[in-house]
């Protein structure tokens, strides 16, 4: 969250100073010409392109950044966020794939759990109930507690108006809490 806030503020400051992001875009282009392709410059260019609503340019920059640092989760998270900006099934599939790639590159348990929850929520949004349930159950293996994960899954279903589907996870959580 801090990185997202810092990036957003950085872009806002450039907009306030220049009225748009054109100057920052030129500056990054000049730095790339001088310094060559660097992960940080490509990632930042991707974020600038996304802020300018140029999804294709953003996708290209994030993919190039991912190639420069194959172990980094951040460009895959950026690709997932970019895909979530879209509104069709292809975008939803791209978001799921990018989050899967980010999870594979994330080592810290809490960070992995947050990504698994996001993946579960995306699966819910896509109507893939079994994939969503599997992700929420994966949370329990990541130390988020079996009954708690089931309660979170039931609440997420209920929040999407899937009240009938929420009954079984609520019952399973209650059974788990009783022991």
* Chain-averaged pLDDT: 91
| Uncertain residue ranges | none
Strand content: under 5%
Q: Please estimate the helix content.
A: over 70%
Radius of gyration: 19 Å
The number of distinct β-strands equals: 0
Oligomer: single chain
SSE succession: HHHHHHHHHH
Termini separation? 36 Å
Shape: elongated
Please give a handful of descriptors for the protein shown:
mainly alpha, single chain, 179 residues
Commentary on this structure:
This protein has 179 residues and is mostly helical. It has ten helices and no strands. The protein starts with a helix and ends with a helix. The relative contact order is 0.06. The model has no long low-confidence stretch (mean pLDDT 91).
Q: What's the arrangement of secondary structure elements?
A:
Blueprint: H1 2-18, H2 22-35, H3 39-51, H4 55-68, H5 74-85, H6 89-104, H7 109-125, H8 129-144, H9 146-159, H10 163-178
Short description:
With 179 residues, the protein is mainly α.
């Amino acid at each position: 969250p801090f990185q997202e806030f810092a990036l957003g503020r950085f872009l806002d400051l450039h907009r306030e100073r220049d009225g748009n992001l054109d100057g920052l875009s030129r500056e990054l282009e000049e730095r790339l010409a001088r310094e060559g392709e660097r992960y940080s410059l490509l990632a930042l260019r991707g974020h600038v392109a996304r802020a300018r609503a140029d999804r294709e340019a953003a996708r290209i920059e994030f993919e190039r950044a991912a190639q420069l640092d194959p172990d980094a989760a951040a460009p895959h998270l950026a690709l997932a966020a970019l895909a979530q900006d879209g509104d069709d099934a292809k975008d939803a599939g791209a978001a799921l794939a990018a989050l899967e790639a980010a999870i594979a590159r994330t080592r810290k348990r809490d960070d992995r759990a947050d990504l698994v929850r996001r993946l579960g929520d995306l699966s819910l949004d896509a109507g893939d109930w079994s994939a969503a349930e599997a992700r929420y159950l994966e949370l329990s293996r990541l130390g988020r507690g079996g009954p708690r994960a089931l309660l979170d899954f039931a609440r997420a279903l209920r929040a999407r108006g899937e009240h009938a589907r929420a009954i079984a996870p609520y019952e399973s959580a209650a059974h788990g809490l009783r022991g």
